[in-house]
Amino acid sequence: MTGSDAAAWVQAVGSVAAIVAAGLLPLWHERCKRKAQRQEWLSNLTALAFEVRDMAMAVAKAYRSEDSLYATRMGDDADEYAPLLEALGSFPSYALTDRLHLIALLHLRRFASHGDQLWRAAVSHGEALSHNWEAKEQAGDLAEETVAFVEGVAAFK
């Protein structure tokens, strides 16, 4: 093989390598973008989980409070948690590729819906809260379950 033949082979191999790299670079970039998007979705899911936890604790406090009008003083807005329910409802479940993350979203929606119902009852009934033992128990259970669940969600990576 002559020097010009070797140079031609080096040029050919270099050209093929450049073509392959040019084809793989967009794929690698897209993969990195998807991974960053997935991390953002998980971060958003975790933030929503903490909001649901805070809601559950506020609901439980409203039902536990010695001051039966606590709930109405805290916001006297029955729609206080409507934005949270909307955010959970519009969260793109298709973006959650892991089965456990999807299950977490469904549980958070359930916790938030139940908490919203209890909150609306607390706001609308005010003084009657002190005698509603079943609702007090539900509010306490909701808070306990939600806090435990959110600790697990916060561990998502």
TrEMBL record:
It comes from the Bacteria. Keywords: Membrane, Transmembrane, Transmembrane helix. The chain crosses the membrane at residues 6-28. This is DUF4760 domain-containing protein. It comes from Luteibacter sahnii.
